[in-house]
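Can you please make up a whole protein chain along with its backbone structure tokens because I've never seen that pairing?
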Amino acid sequence: MLTIDRYIMQQFIAGVFLVLVLLLSLFSFLALADELGNVGKGGFTLPDALMVVILTTPKRVVELLPVTTLLGGLMGLGAMANQLEIIAIRANGISKQRIALTVTMLAIFLGIFVSLLQFSVVPASEREASQLRGKSIPGTEADVGNTQAFWTRNGPWFIRVNEVQFDRRLKDLEIYKTDSMGRLEQLVQADVADYADAENWLLSGVVQTTVQNSEVSVRQHESMLWTELLSVEQAAVLMLPLEALAPDDLIRTIANLRRNKLDTHRYEIVLWQQVSLLPGLLAMALLSLPFLLGSVRNVSASQRAIIGGLIGIGFYLVQQLSGHMAGLMGLNPSLVILTPSFILLAIAIFAIRHHRL
């Protein structure tokens, strides 16, 4: 039994690996074409663009793996089906439920792999990519996660940031405002700045110093909102996209925003989209079996690839649409985003149980 289980897993993984390499090559080429538009801006060079594409590969793996699992299963196990190996295994007394259990164990392994990427590899690699993209903004000498302070300006405000963390957080800030003669009017010091939404930042541990008519007044705030701390271009480069944050960072940020009675909807949507990858992986893996159980001699590999591609694209679009719906209509993100994955999983289980050989 264990030998057959290993063989099924090997064929499944071989199909997933082949499809993943093909899709990664395609999407990496498209990503490179996009990065080439920044070559020549500031200190951003062609080697930097190539390195950015390499560093953002883990994130693409996470995004592509559910679709890849379905296509890989259809390709890998489909080769076994075309050679009548699936029928031989069934004739040897191994039930379709046992085959489904083997595929489920493999899907759990892939889920653990995705979780490891989400928690550690993706945030770290995206941080390095952001450092390289930062070269494309002239006058901004900052590295995400670097302890060296950098200066920037936004309108009348001069801003010093001591550290940019890869979880969309700035540490040890000083914000200066001067009059037309260059004299200090206001100084705002903050321990931490969390990116809230749009152009709003949540400053924590704030000391606000105002100089007016040679009089100095000091006020302390536990927290306060600040608009346009960084420009849109700076925020886009220095701050990681929400999708690149680890789930635990998202949970921490959501808790912090809730404590300050700020909107957390966008963060919740991204968090539940990450969570939905796990049942989505299982659903995609199991969904390949109903197409392969029984006689498949009249079904070509290209036909299976087309069917799998259509289902995978449809699932991806539904997932993205559910996220947008939850954001635009203020719906419960967990319910709206997880529902398509669990519906697909229920369909896969029902199809396996009621499929006739």
